[in-house]
Amino acid sequence: MASPLFDLTGKVAVITGSSKGIGKSIALQLALQGARVVVSSRKQSACEAATEEIRKAGGEAIVIPCNISDKAQCERLISETKRQLGPVDILVCNAATNPYYGPTEKMPDEVFMKIMQNNILSNIWLITLCLPEMRAKKDGSIIIVSSIGGVRASPVIGAYCISKAADMQLARNLAAELGPDNIRINTIAPGLVRTDFARALWEDPAYLNKRLEGAPLRRIGEPDDIGGIAVMLAGKAGAFITGQTIIADGGVTIGG
Description:
CATH class: Alpha Beta
CATH superfamily: NAD(P)-binding Rossmann-like Domain
Order of helices and strands: EHEHEHEHEHEHHHE
Structural class: alpha/beta
Largest sheet: 7 strands, parallel
Mean pLDDT: 95
Strand order of the largest sheet: 3-2-1-4-5-6-7
Strand content: 5-15%
């Protein structure tokens, strides 16, 4: 018999950036535990493909496209979810951007602002939109997909790392604000995961070998390594966890 600690039957879950990679795994795993999930990313066709995959696996899913850089589209995402499925119980802010590779001193202002808006401000928009119903029910789980970049320095993706560290602090701040209403918020910080987003890294043999040498588990992550953590944080299994960052990186950041 399955443990009720991981049962999400009847819960409504919105996952941004969920047409592929980590986001799609989170949507699939939440759906397999009974949640009714909203698959969302910029491209309708990609969302439809992911949704069909979830349905074939036995899960319930709908598509509501959204470009998280547009506040009006974020508002539509949550309002349409409420119209079609009901109030949001689980919000997973997974979508993010990293449009710049190079030193901070050469980064254009507009690029920095785009990273901050997409990786931090959009999360605040979406969270705020879900709060009234979560407060009314005295229940809610919010998950931000961060990165180990938030706890490590980088000479080439510094702004991305800053944004991911800010997401961790955002979770801490909101955990203190929202805890009295039994709304939990946490971040997951993956290391290198086999996704299209990180393809340039794991397809580079020299980089991959170096990363594997420094990883106690001697492998990179798979999307389901992150999807499983999201299931735990979304339900009763994670009911006493808030304001935390769970690092899932095969041990890279412990320096072993």
